[in-house]
Each structure stands twice: as structure tokens, then as C-alpha cells.
Amino acid sequence: MTNQTTYPLRLPRSVRAEVERLAKEDGVSINQFVATAVAEKVAALNTADFFAIRKSRADFTAFDRIIRRKGGEPPRPGDEIGRPKRPKPPAGSTRSRGRYRAGRPPPA
């Protein structure tokens, strides 16, 4: 038994064409591409809600007190405060539209 429903979706022609192109590049069906895109959006919204709730419960006065306290151990190598380093993408992949897509050529 599957846990799926059918939903008729109307897209502007330009959006549909782009979805078809991207799905073909990824080697998946349009249905799978759209389902994955919707799942990613739902996850992003849920994550934003999660952090908004956590932020509303935060005690910034206590945070500042803990951060400014004296003592403890010096930072381990690589944990020093400084300019943040951007993570390198995995070998053999390109970065496009905010996510890694292994084996895809970079956009022209």
C-alpha cells in the first residue's frame, strides 16, 4: 500500500519548461523532481519555524554571561575565531542553485 495522493498542478509554460529541463538534467521524472522540490521547500520552512521557536526561548543575557566568562581551555586548532572558511564542495561535483549535483557540468 502506498501513501500517495494525486494533485493536478498547473504551471506557467516557462516554469514547466524549466522543470522539464532540470528534471532531464537530473535524470528523473518531472513528477519526482516536483515532489522533491516540494519536500525541500517544506523542510526549509519547518527548519525556519524550528529556529524561530528556539530563538524565542533563548536567554541572551545568560548567553552573553557564558560567552564572556573567564577561564576554560584555549580553542583547539581550527576552532579559533577568525574569518569563516567556506566548505569545499565534494570532489567531482559542481555547485548549482544552492545544492551539490554530482556529475553535472557547470551552468553555461
Describe the structure.
This protein is mainly alpha-helical. It has a domain at 10-68. 47% of the residues lie in helices and 7% in strands. The protein has a two-stranded antiparallel sheet. The longest helix has 28 residues, at 30-57. The model has no long low-confidence stretch (mean pLDDT 84).
Coarse structural class? mainly alpha
Percent helix, as a range, is: 40-55%
Q: Which runs of at least 5 residues are low in confidence (pLDDT < 50)?
A: none
Count of individual beta strands = 2
Q: SSE string, helix = H, strand = E?
A: HHHEE
Strand count, sense and closure of the main sheet? 2 strands, antiparallel
State mean pLDDT (0 to 100 scale): 84
Shape category = elongated
Q: Please compute the radius of gyration using only Cα atoms.
A: 22 Å
Number of helices: 3
Order of strands in the sheet with most strands: 1-2
Please report which band the strand proportion falls in: under 5%, 5-15%, 15-25%, 25-35%, 35-45% or over 45%: 5-15%
List the SSEs and their pairings.
Blueprint: H1 13-26, H2 30-57, H3 60-68, E1 93-96, E2 99-102
Antiparallel strand pairs: 1-2
Which keywords apply here?
108 residues, mainly alpha, two-stranded antiparallel ribbon, 3 helices, 2 strands, 47% helix
Short account of what is shown:
The chain is mostly helical and 108 residues long.
